[in-house]
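worker-03 picked up job from queue 'complexes'. Input manifest follows; two sequence lines, order preserved.
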Amino acid sequence: MAILVSSETRLLVQGITGNEGSFHTRRMLDYGTQVVAGVTPGKGGEWVHGVPVFDTVREAVQTTGADTSVIYVPAAFAADTIMEAADAGIGLIVCITEGIPVLDMVRAAQFLAGTESRLIGPNCPGVITPGQAKVGIMPGHIHMPGPVGVVSRSGTLTYEVVKALTDRGLGQSTAVGIGGDPIVGTTFVDILRMFEADPATTHIVLIGEIGGSDEERAAQFIATEVSKPVTAFIAGRTAPPGQRMGHAGAIIEGGEGTARDKIAALEAAGIRVARHPAEVAEMVAERI
Amino acid sequence: MKLHEYQSKRIFAKYGLAVPQGNVATTPLEARQIAHLLGGPVVVKAQVLAGGRGKAGGVQVAQDAAAAEDAARRIIGMTIKGLTVHKVLVEQAASIGQEIYLGIVIDRAQRKPAMIVSAEGGIEIEEVARTSPDRIFRLLVDPLHGLMDYQARNLAFDLGLQRGAIRQFTAVARGLWRVFAENDATLAEINPLVITPDGQMIAVDGKITLDDNALFRHRELNESRDVQEETESQRQARQADLSYVKLDGDIGCMVNGAGLAMATMDIIDLYGGRPANFLDIGGGAKADKVAAALRIILADPNVRVILVNIFGGITRCDEVARGILDVITELPVERRLPLVVRLVGANEDEGRQVLADADVVTAASLAEAARQAVALAARQPVM
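worker-03 finished. Artifact:
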């Protein structure tokens, strides 16, 4: 089963003719993902790696029945393409783009609230259900099918943890990068709810970082609503306050969003928190 | 990007918000001239991008122009939280009746801007949140409709403002909303908003933080970046499009990805070492960017060991290795530092090949790399 994406997913790539879009379309096809369409306004009628390109999402959906989209559009235009996808009835929108202005995302989030669409990201590596579909930029070969659901706010840190899991023979049901920006479409709690309901997932790994309070809300949710064992890791124990640590979302503001607070909240909810990425896999292995 | 108080106030004034009359001085003599033109008592305020200016002595009242010159002489050149003061704002002193806090921030959980007010103005809002959270009122602003008059009125009544002040407060709140929305701010704050004894509302202090991701559509604001506030390494990092934050340890780190960069700092700390910096080379960095990153780390005199941790994906390990090799080759032998390199993922074999003959310590895992770096730092003599 897994969550969000599967071998049934019919994927549309927004920004398919760009460098990134074209490169990752090739990788996603190689992984076995059903990429059915691409969109770049003004490039309709072209083909990229055997995938037909359309001018609009509306036309791509009508012609190919795409139900999921992945966005590799530059930051200045990305929020608009999220709304275009939602308006065309795309159910799952995965936005990889980094650096979208916050107020653009405020408007897009407001727009999405009135639709049935779910947004993952922006500024995220995407979603992969190992052995079935890869929607995003993560290296496919470090994953393997299995029972561990992974949800994370970061990119390469997620790969580090996933590789540690795979090296120990612990496969993943689905790995979801929810993104490192202040405003993201899907939160830890949303994904935890899906993993809890997913029969293919028996363990959950949550990878958080400094900034915001999504981890604290996740801790509360896990305490009352999640029966499956959860192992967590929080990056940024040594991060100084008031400084933006790469991600727009990774900043400790006014004493809020520290790693210490997040770790305390998770531990208070009975969740084991690893001290470094490889220890996540050791902790999962002990309980499986 | 954080704006100085004087820059924030210029924007406030553009949107019709009342600010004290004044100007910026870079020398004591200029401060004297500005004070002379203003007449009467003035406030001389350090313009530095750090909080706690008042406590550090960076804000002083002067009764006349001569006193303003003296105050400026004391303040210019002062160091506040590690930053040197290069400018002062000389302003007419406002007579204060009531002090209010008025700010707009992004509420991440609600995915909307939130306007926050408190009758406890003049102190940091975080402090009020700790001591008397019931004195803070907030409401969410719909980005599509903007701040409504009735919302501003509701806040005015929450604050317990006198009837005569309601209309004026509404205008100030709407003005601040426009400042926030039209300049792509992530924070716009007036603290304190002073109500003078004769009923005027004046933004006596304030700050604006602009969204770095939106600066491309505000070219005029981008030019207000204060390069004097940047250290040489920050400037180099910005120009090379690297995300760099200096810390005070001795193990320099170069990593791809912000989360992994923080996890690398954390694991160094876990094994008893001290990270010298946060440095994210981003995705898909080429050799020249890697070299620029290494040079920034090498310029930090505290650094005794360098740890490179790369999980290749979009970033290719061979590009990283080439960047490392370029820098090693150009360095004189006596300036070479122990380098622990961990490369995994895209083109890792090619990357190891590039470094095969180089004088670097290779590690297979992050944990091993961190242990090696900590051990080497402990053995390395202090320069």
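worker-03 released lock.
The radius of gyration of chain B is 25 Å.
The first helix of chain B runs from residue 5 to 14.
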